[in-house]
Amino acid sequence: MAIIEVTVIPIGTATTSLSAYVADLHRMLESAEEPIRFEMTSMSTIIEGDLEDLMNVVRRLHEVPFIHGAHRVSTSIKIDDRRDKAASMEQKLRSVQEKLKG
C-alpha cells in the first residue's frame, strides 16, 4: 500500500481564501470509487491505497479547482511506496510513538 501527501493550490481565484476549494476536494475524496483512506491536515491531505488508484485520485483532485473557477492550479505530491512490508498512516505514527517511549 502506498501513501501520498498531496497539496492542491488554486491560483487566479477571486479571493485569497481557499477553504471552499478545500471543501470541494474533500467532497471528491469522499465520493471516490477507489478503495482509499484519507486524512486532511491544515496544510495537505494524506491518502493511502494502491498506487495506481492514488494516482487516478490525484489527477481528479488536480482538476477540481478548475471545475470551480480557478485559472491555474499547482499540485505537489510526495509518494511513500513501501514494498517490503505493509505500511499505513497509523503504522507510521505508531512506529514513531513507540520510539519516543523508549
Automatic annotation (TrEMBL):
Q: Which domain of life is it from?
A: Bacteria
Cite the Pfam families for this sequence. Thiamine_BP
Residue ranges of domain Thiamine-binding protein in the record: 5-97
UniProt cross-references to InterPro entries, sorted A to Z? MTH1187/YkoF-like, Thiamine_BP, UPF0045_domain
Question: What is the similarity comment for this entry?
Answer: Belongs to the UPF0045 family.
Report the protein name in the record: MTH1187 family thiamine-binding protein
Q: What organism does the UniProt record list as the source? A: Paenibacillus gyeongsangnamensis
